[in-house]
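Notebook, p. 212. Picked up where the previous page left off. The plan for this session was modest: take the two constructs that came back from the sequencing core last week, fold each one, and keep the raw output in the notebook itself so nobody has to go hunting through shared drives later. Recording the first one now, exactly as returned: residue sequence, then the structure token string.
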Amino acid sequence: MWDFRTDPEFQIKLDWIDRFVREECEPIDLLFPHLGQPYNTENKAARAIIAPLQEQVKAQGLWACHLGPELGGQGYGQLKLALMNEILGRSMWAPTIFGTAAPDTGNAEILAMFGTDEQKSTYLQPLLDGDIVSCFSMTEPQAGADPKEFVCAARKDGDEWVISGEKWFSSNARYAEFFIVMAVTDPDASPYRRMSMFVVPAKTPGIEILRNVCVMPDREELDEGTHAYIRYNDVRVPSDAILGGPGQGFEVAQARLGGGRVHHAMRTVGRCQRAFDMMGERVLSRRTQGEVLADKQMVQQFIADSWIELQQFRLLVLQTAWIIDNEPHGAARTNIAMCKVAMAKVLHDIIQRAIQIHGSLGVTTETPLYDWWTSVPSLALADGPTEVHKATVAKRVLKNYKPAEGLFPTEHIPTRRAAARERYADILKEHGVE
């Protein structure tokens, strides 16, 4: 049965989250606005402020809810996570305060599924406790996110693996305690069996951060970049550093990326809602040409288009979460790709309208719109370019269709009319219908 109601007991928790994010998390965004700061464990002032907030979250039983009880989470399904994350998406710091910050969430899941007991003890538990952060090192400068073009390789040397090559856009490497690195271990294997995944401690000799790349709106002169361009110079790790097994790198990556994409979409709902809230307040507060902005038909069109797009996107995200919870593994792949495609466009359109409605104030740094606007291009590329996901949607949807059997399309009216006449020929003849 379809049901759009939220369980009353869980709604109480959602109401608490909403108040907490607005009153406690959003002010932290103003104090420490740089994108990298939630991952900087050396920022003692920020950590001193968020530590008691994290304890409040834990006291409410809302810490790391994406994880199962055996790992200290609540084992919430994706539908509950969607309802939570669309609130957390209002604040940059909220995911860190709730123990759900990417890429640490995905890396924690990888370690939980594929890590050894020692790896879980050394890295997983501190990661779940929020004491350390991690890095996912997959994309490469010549290949982007296409694993079939990767050349960074790992070779076996006795009881060790030796990793050599370069990685690009490795998030939060400068703050990370460990990296999860994808490397080619069998270049002659089939495209999706060439690679393996490794746990690499950040202090391992041979890791060279060539530079920390800035993204909009980072400032290079202040060294604010957090996406590392890395060279692995014969980096040696023990044989058990491999996750899953040789040739399983693609499966390990997919185990984390699907969840990461839909969680991005969940949080985007919250950011869009906050931008829409700003629009609603603005159009009722400002006057021009003798009336409030809300009375202008063009402004009404902005409001209507934004609200419709936001509700459509939210329902797509919730449906995707429902499929993940209720259907076999992999059934939501098309929907996840749809969410990934839609979220950047919806965010772009709503924020663009919000900026326009705020006029000159909208293009200044005195509202959150500036930072949100500059995040749109990154969102369209994170976890795979939008175009790749469009191709995925098209290919998977077209599997439900087949070519027309005859010369004309199935919906060709003359052909269908002739078939209908043949089917009912006796009745038509009896009643004198030509």
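Okay, moving on. Second construct, recorded in the same format:
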Amino acid sequence: MKLIWKFLIFSLLGIHSYAVFPKEKAVYELHSKEELFFLGEDSRAQDAKEKWNLDELENFAVTSNPLYLREKQNIGMARGDIITASLYYNPIMNMQQQFIGASASAATGRAETSFIYNQPFDMSGVIPQREKVAKQEFLGTIASFRDFDRMFRLRLRQNFWTYLYVTEQINYQKEFLENYQDLLDLTKLRAEKGDISFLEYDRLALERVQIEREYRNARILRAQVVKNLRILIGISDINSPLSIKGRLEFISTREFGIDLNDFDIEERPDLVALKIRQQKERMNIELKKREIIPPLTLGVEFLNKGNENVTGLYAATPLPLFDRKQGEILKSEEAYKKLGFDVDAKRNEIMSEISAAIKELQARESQLLDYQKMGLLEKNKEVQEKSRLAYIRGASNLVTFLEAEKNYLSVLRSYYEIIYLYYNALEGYKASIGKMDSSEF
């Protein structure tokens, strides 16, 4: 489009424009090399770095992000708790030798040697129940990690769509900025010829300054988004540019194969984690009751004193007369009731969250479908082109042309913003029902 536009300019100006503009005219540069490096877009390094799509970003993030890997370690720690809970009581061995003052004629008698072996026994099934509780905690840890993974992927995808949205802004603002520079040259030429007032040239120069400011702000915003993406995917080398591939194009939920009414709130990882922990507390109540009966310790003792050898058996167990785990049982019962209320509250929260996500997604999609049906961008582009040609030919004034340009910019900005909000709403819906993977739909 830029080449066509320039061709029309030089066709209208003819040989006179060649005389006015020198051959050694400097190319209009939007950014210096230092600015490109600050924005993370050094072209030399950019060519050496492969562009990543959303799936590649996620796969790399879950294998390299230290925060993600740290959270994943909780599963291994919970597995260790299962091993600890399933281990049986250790036996106790005691050897004793009494020799000071020992002799045949001494009052204490001969030296004494004794060997004692004790083994505690689980009489009420405490260890199996403790293992069940640990397994429930392990399942709860997995569910909590799945919930962390859900929110982690949601944040990563939100930054991904933000990157594409800001990139679209940069692309069309750069095009308009370059076109404005060409128009500025044309307007200056017409003003010097006396066709128009220099006031129009000054006004156009101010308009270009405003667009350039928005363009630079968009590039700075993309640099901030890239910073967030670096943190999320775990790239620490600031000299390694991050390049994303993809376009902000509208794809309906029907094309994605998503049915907004097909969901089960019981599959949400955070709700699953609460229900598992509720069951764990129920099992914990039974565990505390079984712990009332202490383990029975059986022992074997061998005693040697001179010519005397004695072997005996004995048993020992604490008597639960005072401490019968009353406080711990009550605490577990109250914790079980508390988690029951938490589960009910979480269900209500999830239903409200899903309802709001569906409404927002339907509103965004409906608006985009209407725009697609009426051909909003095509019609607006046609009006903008006609206004530009009319101004070049002198059939329109600068005010009319600038209004058409502003309107086209506004429509483009609104259109891509709605697509960006649509994809944010789509990811929010996926997160609200607990299905972040497209293959699950």
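Notes on construct two before I forget. The longest helix spans residues 126-193.
Flagging for discussion at group meeting.
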